[in-house]
């Protein structure tokens, strides 16, 4: 079983690339989605988050994401504290996922693959990059936020240069046809290298 880490800055198009790998038959694990689920269901995590951010952290027993986002994207210490609670829980959840996984290849998608230390258990790492303007526009239309908010979020992630330097493969996500070709090439290279 090989684990392929998939990362890239906010708005780079990781989800699009992930779906393409899934269409080729690879199993997928989306760390950000699983983290959100755990923050809403794991009792210990809920207690820790409530202690860190106060009672407003949850509304109607659901994580108050807007409230927490506004704090963490402007306060590095709170962001680091939140990550210190969440990342180990996601790691445990992923280990359980692996036990039940029948596929030879798992794509582990995480925006903060390097920042969380998850890159350490990956056999290959793919970094998705895109032009800054494209990234900003994607996030604005997806999350209905201002350009300033997008740039603030970007500040809390490692830059593309770091991710490119530490990747096995890089996908430039400009147009879908070309991106699909890059995914297909990388898929074939990974499968071939494991046979």
Compute the number of structural domains: 1
β-strand percent reads 15-25%
For the record, give the distance between the C-alpha atoms at the N and C termini, rounded to a whole number: 12 Å
Q: Oligomeric form of this entry?
A: single chain
- Overall geometric form: globular
Looking at the overall shape, the CATH architecture is: 3-Layer(aba) Sandwich
Give me the strand/helix succession: EHEHHEEHHEEHHHEH
SS elements, strand count:
7
Structural class: alpha/beta
Please give the count of helices: 9
Q: What is Rg?
A: 17 Å
Largest sheet: 5 strands, parallel
CATH homologous superfamily - what is it? P-loop containing nucleotide triphosphate hydrolases
Mean pLDDT metric: 93
**Widest sheet: strand order?**
2-5-1-6-7
How is the CATH topology named? Answer: Rossmann fold
| Poorly predicted parts | none
CATH class: Alpha Beta
Q: How helical, in percent, are the residues?
A: 55-70%
Explain what you see.
With 195 residues, this protein is α/β, with parallel strands linked by helices. The chain is built from nine helices and seven strands. The strands form two sheets. Strands 2-5-1-6-7 form a five-stranded parallel β-sheet. Strands 3-4 form a two-stranded antiparallel ribbon.
């Amino acid at each position: 079983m090989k684990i392929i880490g998939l990362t890239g800055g906010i708005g780079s198009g990781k989800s699009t690339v992930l779906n393409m790998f899934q269409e080729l038959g690879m199993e997928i694990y989306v760390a950000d989605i699983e983290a959100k689920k755990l923050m809403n269901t794991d009792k210990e995590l809920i207690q820790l988050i409530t202690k860190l951010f106060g009672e407003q952290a949850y509304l109607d027993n659901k994580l108050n994401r807007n409230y927490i986002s506004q704090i963490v994207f402007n306060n590095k210490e709170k962001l680091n504290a939140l990550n210190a609670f969440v990342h180990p829980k996601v790691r445990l959840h992923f280990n359980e996922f692996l036990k039940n996984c029948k596929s030879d290849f798992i794509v582990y998608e995480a925006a903060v693959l390097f920042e969380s230390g998850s890159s350490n258990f990956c056999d290959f790492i793919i970094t998705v990059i895109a032009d800054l303007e494209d990234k900003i526009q994607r996030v604005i239309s997806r999350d209905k936020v201002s350009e300033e908010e997008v740039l603030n979020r970007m500040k809390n992630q490692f830059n593309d240069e770091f991710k490119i330097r530490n990747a096995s493969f890089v996908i430039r996500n400009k147009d879908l046809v070309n991106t699909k070709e890059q995914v297909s090439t990388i898929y074939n290279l990974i499968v071939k290298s494991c046979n």
